[in-house]
Amino acid sequence: MPRKLFNTLLIIALCFGLLQLSLYVYLHYGKSTFRFGSLRLPSSSTQASLGINTNEISYLDASMPFIDLFRAANPFQDNVLHLPPATIVYDGNGWPSNLNGGQAGTRFLGELPADTIPAGHYTVLYDGEGELRYGNDAKLLSHAPGRDTIDLDAGTNSRLDASLIIVQSNPANPLRNIRILPPGGICQHQPEKRVADANACTAETGEYLSFVEHYDSIIFNPDYLDFMKDFRTIRFMPISGITRNPVVHWQDRPHLQKATWGGNYSQRGAPLEIMVELANRLHKDAWFNLPHAADDEYVREFATYVRDNLDPDLKIYLEYSNEVWNATFNHREYTQQQGIARGLSRNAVEAGYRFYALRSREVFNIWEQVFGNHERFVRVIGGWDTRADFAKEVLSYQDTYQYADALAIAPYFGGNIKGFREAKTVDDIFALTTAPDSYRSLPQVLEHVKKQADIAAQFGLDLLGYEGGQGLVDWATRKPEQMPNPLFYQANRDPRMGELYSQFLTGWSQAGGKLLMLFSAPRACGWYGCWGLK
């Protein structure tokens, strides 16, 4: 064979091999290198699939899941704009039905980076008769009955803040059903790409669908879909709003008709219909958490809706509540009270652990009744990454492990908080994050992972990660510029963080960890940490 031809064939073979490798990595991990440029994925022999956690719905959330910006606004009743007190009457969905001489206002964007959403002219649609006034970075450009055009631009401070106030409303036909929609749209077959107009669409990409005319079917922000599509599983715990939420009855769950899905603890939460639609649309496995106080009817109705509406090809991960061991959540107090009431123990902590085990089994059993078996869903017991005794006690109590499929923990790596407060440079932060004797450093966290993997194996369960990643945060601070927060921000944008994630993912896989749900969808950094993967 001529040497030139041989070299050509060799190059073709090498290129084909690289193409196969690239496709393999994409299918198993997606484009999970967007935040950390130096992130190296584990080898195929030790790979674990990666999932992602959603965020809570809030006007402070930079992930912007919905094309309608008002979905994330705070409820009017909260009066976050501190308007003068008034006896305002609200309907069952939270819309002001009678202002009684007052005004009702809220925020729909707050303290967000300028590029969170495109700047430009946004359309505000509403039903009823009345007048809206806009504030902060939202400026009214034109008005027509039921339709305003506003300009949204972060301005010189590069931070997005936007609010609106209902200053007039006809009680006979009150102003309601506010929708705030961006310019542009999507091509029908490319829902993950935002386009300016119909000129960007072709026969292959499909019909042009403007956001203003098709918001009710588009639902999701294309940028959000583009981010979420690269993960195998979506954990809906944050977006469902179950944290510190005492909801008991099915009729009190978040509804599609609510004025807004945003708000504070116990207020916010996306409807189940929206979570299922997101999983179906992206064809991703779904991880659901049930509220800690949900009664049997709630659990049964939830299971029934998922059975009838989630794509049957998708896997389901089922978890009762979230971190019942965590003293900052009222879930813990609830489980302890219930455990004592059932006579499971006189010791509150022990009673709480035992109730969690029993209630998890009850939830699993209801789902099995609805589905006919448990083949379609993974029964998850939530663990405590640094406390192996918690998993042992819960799993062994009345043989709970026999009714579960997986133990899940949240391996966050960081370091000694006292050392962080004394740190002067980003180098100091990384030194503490990698030092074997530094509390919750990466080496220590991986040791905990190994112990938890051994426990899971002893009980015949898989080890999953319900959350995980870097956890650089000083909860004692309250200002973003307060040290050591600026150093944490720099560390999260440093290429060395990519190297730590590579070690973290490799260590997780080598220890036997399976699905790992990274925390979380895009978020802005603040005194509360840099939890967003982007």
Task: Write up what this structure looks like.
An eight-stranded parallel β-sheet has the order 20-18-17-16-15-14-1-22. It has a four-stranded antiparallel β-sheet with strand order 7-8-5-10, covered by helices on one side. It has 534 residues and is of the alpha/beta class. The chain contains 14 helices and 22 strands. Helices cover 32% and strands 21% of the residues. Helix 5 runs parallel beside helix 6, helix 7 crosses helix 8 and helix 12 runs parallel beside helix 14.
Helix content: 25-40%
Classify the beta-strand content into a percent band.
15-25%
Q: Outline, from the CA principal axes?
A: globular
What structural class do you assign from the helix and strand content?
alpha/beta
Q: Given the structure, what is the number of helices?
A: 14
Beta strands, count: 22
Average residue pLDDT: 92
The radius of gyration over CA amounts to: 25 Å
Please provide a brief summary of the model.
The protein has helices at residues 3-29, 211-218, 222-228, 237-240, 272-282, 296-309, 330-341, 348-371, 388-396, 417-422, 426-434, 442-458, 485-492, 495-510; strands at 50-53, 89-90, 96-98, 104-113, 120-127, 130-136, 138-144, 147-152, 159-169, 176-181, 185-187, 190-195, 208-210, 233-235, 285-290, 316-320, 377-382, 406-409, 412-413, 462-465, 469-470, 516-518.
